[in-house]
Sequence to fold (438 residues):
Amino acid sequence: MAELGAYEAMRTLRAVRRLRPNPIPDDMLHRVLEAATWAPTGGNVQPWRIVAVKDRALKGPIGKLYNDRWINYSKVYRAGIPATASPEARARAERTLKAGDYLGEHFHESPVIAIFCFNPKNMAITDAKQDRVSVVGGGSVYTAVENLLLACRVEGLGCVLTTLLCECEPEVRKVLSIPDPWYTAAAIPIGYPVGRGHGPLIRKPVEQLAYLDSWGKPI
Amino acid sequence: MAELGAYEAMRTLRAVRRLRPNPIPDDMLHRVLEAATWAPTGGNVQPWRIVAVKDRALKGPIGKLYNDRWINYSKVYRAGIPATASPEARARAERTLKAGDYLGEHFHESPVIAIFCFNPKNMAITDAKQDRVSVVGGGSVYTAVENLLLACRVEGLGCVLTTLLCECEPEVRKVLSIPDPWYTAAAIPIGYPVGRGHGPLIRKPVEQLAYLDSWGKPI
Fold:
């Protein structure tokens, strides 16, 4: 069988929040991790590491930390659905919340939880002096995260990019023995999908997201 | 011809710094921009925009700003090559610097410069309270950046992720009329490669970048 096309992989990479607890073959996990290594990073320094958590004794506390944060976050999210939302938009938000509830309750059962770590000392943070939140460090981490997600898509594995655990980073670092000066950027549960898994996306069209030459000018 | 495979695209996505000034077909640029729209973002908010700069009158000042920063940065980079570096490592660093010099001198001639913008008000910055530089906002931008780079690879277009222009973000925002509260995360020159373009990568192996269960434990 021919390899899944690059566009096809990107066009059908969904956030899959219902994952089977069944284990993932080692060679498959290796391919997924290797795809992350190919990503570009500032100065080709690759200032990230993955801790691929499979041990139940570690997934337990990580899953508990995640679900606690999800319960708080989902309350805010639910309260934030505008009263003016269309029935379709409301139903979509409710579906996402239900899938999120499932993920929270089963986070610890994911066969693999990939924790992305980074070392800010190995990054040139070019936006450090701007008077707004910094994002540039993420340019040397989330490129690798996206590759890992796309590799999961190729392999037929469900996955979803989560960052809620950053709220309790000190606890996560303790559970996984992550030393200074390494911090956490994402937690990605990976497993075979319970349902259909990947498929069509709901996204804004190019015309809403890209401009030609100057802000607001149609592409 | 079958679509380029997802793994093949990731495995051969190089930083291509020597680009031809020849224009890119509009439909090709549209496909590249559309690939960015498919990326996952926090809450599916897609808090990013691209300004695709083609107008010479705008590329001129953007290119000048970039090259000024590159000249400064490359001095630091050159001085930072360790005296103990192997002849191979030194030669590789010198090749990257020369390619960077070329990019700096020709940045304004790139047929398209994709400026990625983001709105921090539409992001849940879950690491905002941690006592280190924030990166999580980047999780809703650089996933789209990676998709755009991979799409360039599919199309046979050279490209490279740069963030140096974030150092002079106020000037860039002025040139491109980027309003509050939108800021800049990356500038990606895109064009047909002068030389061979994409191809094999130099990256650390999985065994150096991924651990099993706990920090430092071999995968």
Chain A touches chain B through 101 residues (CB under 8 Å). Chain A has one domain: 6-209.
